[in-house]
Amino acid sequence: MNSHSFSIANTEVPPGKRASAMLHVTRTLRGDLAVPVHVINGASAGPVFAVLCNVHGDEAMPLLAALRLYREIEASKLSGTLILLPVCNPLAFSDFRRESAEQRENTDLHRCFPGNARGSVTEMIARTLAENVLDKVDALCDMHSGGQGGRIHQRADLSEAATGEVRDKSLELCRVFGTGVVHVNNLPPSTAVGYLNSRGKPAAGVEIGGTYMAGPMTEEFVSRIVRGLTNQMKSLGMLEGAPELPAKQYLFTRKERKEANPTKGGYVISHANDIQDLGRWVKAGEKLGSVVDPYTFEESEALAAPCDGVLFFSRMSGPAEAGAKGYAIADAAGLKEI
Ligand SMILES: [Zn+2]
Question: pTM of the predicted model, to two decimals?
């Protein structure tokens, strides 16, 4: 609980104040490596809540929501401490890649927690984040989005390994984000969410939005993320008011996750590339996209919904390699209303 100053990266943040700092990781061939952190310390005591962005380096859009929260939340109206990390993996971020480019293995920060101070650079980043942030928080939201692959998303992820009170509280964090569907997913302790849960703390993963979209679509996704994170803070008692939620939301497991993916490389012409397509009901057989062979100009594959259900990721039109992810539906047959 927060009744005093909050200390991070040799920076003291008194109650009612905000501060930005850099968490030093190590000295690399590119120079000093550090992870940026922004803190709003509420005037009143309350939980410590962290928001991670860019654990995958090419999933940049959620950091716009973190920026908006940092500008708009008034410390005088906040109970507790909000920690925003816009760029968790600066190596991958600066390379426009999902994972770090480095000589050693273990380059996916999303699979490196709680890290290793003598491991790969990515594992050192994980160690820095675990020691300075994850081990100090009462709740966490790990933000992901579509990246270089050209996909758009909208769902919250609950770890399928969570049980008891940790599961109940994590499910509540997922539900109040308001994405419409909560995916009970494989999030081992090597993920930030799984690590938090292993320490007995609630955590939600959220996949929402994409990168390089038109302005209005980016703006709408950013507004949804700001609303979702604000809802989570209301639910945690950090902000006044009740969460604003969709009329119906559903829970599904990996068994109900049905995908339509290109098996041939080509230019995917997407018929479900609008923000309104996410969270909408589709019918089995509905054509979601088609693959055009860029060499022969023939349509080489149709991508159709494999079942009735809720579309929770989709893709923008553009080139996709064979085996890339296309579209995913939460099968209506197994949806549970929450
Ligand atoms: Zn990701």
Answer: 0.97
